[in-house]
Amino acid sequence: DTVRKVPRGALIVFEGGDRCGKTTQCSKLVERLRSQGVDAVMWRFPDRSTSIGAAINAYLAEQSHLDDAVVHMLFVANRLEKREEMLRLLAGGTTLVLDRYSYSGVAYTAAKGLPHLSIEYCKSVEVLLPAADLVLHMTMTAEATAARGGYGQERYEKVEFQKKAMEAFEALRDERWAVIDASGTIEDIHQQVVAVTEPVVRQALAGRALGRLWD
Ligand code: Z5A
């Protein structure tokens, strides 16, 4: 049997601690891919533009209180409301570069250490979503990111909590993850990102099947 391979866009995800430079690197990567003729767009999660995203935003800004299980499901729903569009774009050949995704969903909730919101439970509610072809895990100490501008304004921006979330990210790593040292210059990091991303984009264009979380 020969399986026909269909070209598609790649699903590239940036993960890491608060203020480690994800947004900066997502924009640079999209710019670079586009300059090479790759159709690429950048999205971020949480997507604060939807009504679910507005509820998440109020929670993160400490303007509302929500039960931990409820806010967890809001983050999941905020991805699910973009699922069809995600799949349509990928199938149409657009590469999606995401600033956080399900891996943050699992890591930040699991970092709360609540028995009913374990890593396994958090993973189980993401299974309707596609897996990333590549997770770029930007690593830097929580103390170093805390020294950056804008830190400390939102609910989870506390060094001790960030450290627990970083441990949870480490527990999620598999062969689709690349660890990027986020403490260098913006340009050095970009070069590392490009080196690991380009082969993955080519594989997707060559028809490598899209996976599902957490196959
Ligand atoms: N969360 C969750 O709980 N569950 C979920 O399912 C999801 C998320 C998806 C908000 O996320 C919170 O939601 C987050 C996880 C949780 N809580 N925490 N922590 P967010 O993505 O909206 O917020 P963020 O992580 O705080 O993103 P950010 O502030 O936009 O940071 P960033 O994208 O990693 O960094 P940046 O904006 O590119 O750069 C930050 C600053 O550093 C800026 O001034 C840059 O100019 C500077 N910068 C960037 N790179 C460098 C280098 N290389 N050197 C020096 N300075 C640099």
UniProtKB/TrEMBL annotation:
Which enzyme class, named as a word? transferase
The identity of this protein, by name, is: Thymidylate kinase
- Keyword Cell inner membrane attached: no
One example GO MF annotation? nucleoside diphosphate kinase activity
Write the record's keywords in alphabetical order, separated by commas. Answer: ATP-binding, Kinase, Nucleotide biosynthesis, Nucleotide-binding, Transferase
Q: What is its EC number?
A: 2.7.4.9
One GO cellular component term: mitochondrion
Q: Name one GO biological process term.
A: dTTP biosynthetic process
Shown stretch of the complete protein:
5 to 219 of 425
| Limits of the Thymidylate kinase-like domain | 14-193
Question: What family does the entry list?
Answer: Belongs to the thymidylate kinase family.
* Pathway the protein acts in: Pyrimidine metabolism; dTTP biosynthesis
